[in-house]
Structure prediction request, 579 residues.
Amino acid sequence: MSATFDAGTFAPDPGSGSRGRMLVVHTRTETLLALRHSEQLLLTLVIPLALLVGLTLLQGLVELPEPRVNAALGTVLALAMMSTGFTSQAIALGFDRRYGLMRRLAATAIPRWLVVTGRLGGMAAVVVIQVVVLGGVALALGWRPDAGSLGWALLLVVLGAGAFGACGLLLGGSVRADLVLVIANVVWFVLLFVGGIVVPADQLPGPLGALVELLPSGALAEGLRDVLLGGTPGLAHVVVLVVWGVAAGLVAGRTLKWD
Amino acid sequence: MTGSEGRAPLRSVSGDPAVEVRDLVVRYGTTTAVDGLDLDLRPGRVLALLGPNGAGKTTTVEVCEGFRSRTAGSVRVLGQDPAGAPEALRARIGVMPQGGGAYPMVRVREMLDLVAACSAHPLDTGWLIETLGLDSCARLPYKRLSGGQQQRLSLACAIVGRPELVFLDEPTSSLDPQGRHLVWDLVRALRADGVAVLLTTHFMQEAEALADDVVIVDHGRVVAAGSPDELTTSGAEDTMRFRAPPGMDLTLLEGVLPEGYLSKEGPPGHYTVSGRIDPQVLAAVTAWCARQGVLADDVRVGRRSLEDVFLDLTGRELRS
Prediction:
């Protein structure tokens, strides 16, 4: 390996790239990596799909109001947002930090807000794919949406992804990667079963039901089931999601470590 | 080689020194990592920062890059204060951090394209990948690359944006000899095109081969500075080594040498004469041996290497 270079090959010609191009390339890279990672796909797509089919077709699994597919779709959309926004995002960020990515990016001209925006852009792309795939399978299973419930559901999905995404950035950006892995998976399991996602809040024992409605998991799942079964979302659910998103986002902005 | 057709060579973007550090002090709690350090680097030159582990090299480089705050002293990088790593400065410099950095699952091309997108006029990434011998692993995820491949990708990321100033923190520590020579060729080409290069290294040979100026630091202070030539000749003495039967009386030898020359027997039978070794001294030593009836064998005359200077200044014990 030896090389000769023409004079002027490396003549300085520095400068920042365009913001738009940075954002496009960064978001594209984040999306590609999320879709290429098989464990993340299991979490974000395969498990929610299996649960959608299982909850809809297996009557005895969990007590759900009719039409079951509507309630099941609310459940799995909430799970999908938690998987993508919180667990996947936190684990990816934790390991990206361990591999020195943040330090690498911090040494380029890319502004920090754009690094965060690119990550959220990648997350948004995965969310769109989840909504399309889960919605498509729900249609095949007999879901018949109306415009009103669809609009509310999409608003809740956006708020839920934002709240979980902020929590994911907070966890992934502040502790060691191996610890992120453990915490993100344990929280996912706990919230899935006793956080109001699979088992609705009113079927949980005693004060737990009231408590989970204050969590992003409970607020999102209950809100989605309400609107998909033809109702409107309770104001409390919307407020809970907004408060979690803003609070976690503000704390993450202060604690995010760049190495 | 392509990648830059039609570009004007050596555009002087500003007349400022590339790096100017005065009396830099960096403390963490009660530890003083850098203790009153000065550096000067001008465009089109290569400055090597040498020092044992923990000498303060990386801390100094990180202060210049703007990623670490200083306790005292003044630092100007391309005429700007680097504190807080302002974007206007980051756009003009290239950084190769120690240990690299990328997404664990990203492919070589994707990572380099991402870094290139941050620059206004990047080098052709395909050409750079090929030049650095990374085309064979272009589809492997970053975490599956060898240490040397990761290091070459990191170097590519540092130079892809056509910077005026490049910081290379131990750029060849994981490379095989072929890879090391490739990086050396590249650093020489950067220098010839007017780029300023600040590199830290453990390899004396690397500093001797590349650097216009060498700064040796230890315990956060400059212990020696100058060109490799100045460092290996100034104050240093030449040595003449030879082998002969053990136990010769060296006071007799010093009697035939001019004032100020020293001789000693190291391991039995291994003799060293230190002082300025010229043909007369060489002749005097071998003639003296002949008069003793012995043949001076394996006669070698040597100047100190940069490694000798380094070890003399920083000590020979290992640092953790």
User: Anything to note?
Assistant: The longest helix of chain A spans residues 68-98. The mean pLDDT of chain A is 91.
